[in-house]
Specification:
The chain is of the alpha/beta class. It folds into two domains: about 170 residues, Peroxisomal Thiolase, Chain A, domain 1, CATH 3.40.47.10; about 150 residues, 3-Layer(aba) Sandwich (Peroxisomal Thiolase, Chain A, domain 1). It contains ten helices and 13 strands.
Length: about 325
């Protein structure tokens, strides 16, 4: 294929969330916690939870269909589907192959990518390279998570945080000077032990950390992750702007991963930006991992908060531990 273009951006955006709402007051009946404690510590009031008989790919498919419609592009035109997820329905077939089948995107290659909550930024970075080199023209990048299925509902430190959702973007050639101006991704596997979700193997040490009889659930050292997150969100935001002509003052909105309002506020304070410049919806949806940033983008776009030419930054951190940021001149 030979689609040479120097500018790559988001052509369409979409999201999907479960109908079921789980409030802090609902959680009060399940574990030893309170609405006041959750709100103060996390900023979360409610979150969306999938029915246990509904696969996560159902949300990913809905979000992808909405992104395709928004972009005005048919599923048959998609060259590649990248699904960022840490909660695939199956190890094989991949979530991307399941969604490819659901969409009827018959000519698309497909693979999953796991960078936990940073996954959407990683996916955008990969898509950007494929399109810039002319290898592909249109790519679907999807963040799709069903974290409720790996949540330890006996662990009050984590069950109040995580939820389900999906966000998708159609990525392709855009007008020169618009789109993805720069991305920055990184990882530190030495810190990986601070967030773990076992699959085919689990150590005795990891087993002992879990309160549930089902040991293949998510566990997190909240204090260590908090310290890492505030520091790395500032670092990634500053780093991704370095090779561009964009400054913090030039940004219309920063879209951080929605993990915890205290992390978001802490990072904003370190950056010296006002809270009005930082997008938040964690109070409504909780932490939906790789879906967090694209769901926020879709919400802001549909609300008319994004205009063509606006400079924005997407920034996240997640298990691995990983981090990533993208600076984009909005092209829609």
């Amino acid at each position: 294929m030979n689609f040479q273009n120097n500018s790559v951006g988001i052509l369409g955006i979409g999201s999907a969330l479960p109908e079921k709402v789980l409030t802090n007051f609902d959680l009060e009946k399940m574990v030893d916690t309170s609405d006041e404690w959750i709100t103060k510590r996390t900023g979360i009031s409610e979150r969306r939870i999938l029915d246990e008989n509904t696969p996560g790919s159902h949300l990913g498919t809905k979000a992808a269909k909405r992104a395709l419609e928004d972009a005005g592009i048919a599923a048959e035109e998609i060259d590649l589907i990248i699904v960022a997820t840490e909660t695939p329905d199956y190890l094989t077939p991949s979530m991307s192959c399941i969604i490819q089948s659901n969409l009827g995107a018959s000519k698309a290659a497909a693979f999953d990518l796991n960078s936990a909550c940073t996954g959407f930024v990683y996916g955008l970075t990969v898509a950007n390279q494929f399109i810039k080199t002319g290898f592909y023209k249109y790519i679907l990048v999807i963040g799709c998570e069903a974290l409720s299925k790996v949540t330890d509902w006996k662990d009050r430190n984590t069950c109040v945080l995580f939820a389900d959702g999906a966000g998708a973007a159609v990525v392709g050639p855009v007008e020169e000077g618009y789109g993805i101006l720069n991305t920055y991704i990184g990882a530190d596997g030495n810190l990986g032990k601070n967030i773990t979700a076992p699959c085919c193997f689990i150590t005795d040490e990891d087993k002992a950390k879990r309160e549930s009889e089902n040991k293949r659930v998510l566990w997190m050292d909240g204090g260590e992750v908090f310290k890492f997150a505030v520091r790395i969100m500032e670092h990634a935001t500053v780093k991704v702007l370095e090779d561009t002509k964009i400054t913090l003052d030039d940004l219309k909105i920063i879209f951080p991963h929605q993990a915890n309002i205290r992390i978001i506020d802490g990072a904003a304070k370190r950056l010296g930006v006002s809270q009005e410049k930082v997008f938040t919806n964690v109070h409504k949806y909780g932490n939906i991992s790789s879906a967090s940033i694209p769901v926020g983008l879709d919400e802001a776009d549909k609300a008319g908060s994004l205009k063509k030419g606006d400079n924005i930054v997407l920034v996240g951190f997640g298990g691995g531990l990983t981090w990533g940021a993208a600076v984009i001149k909005w092209s829609k």
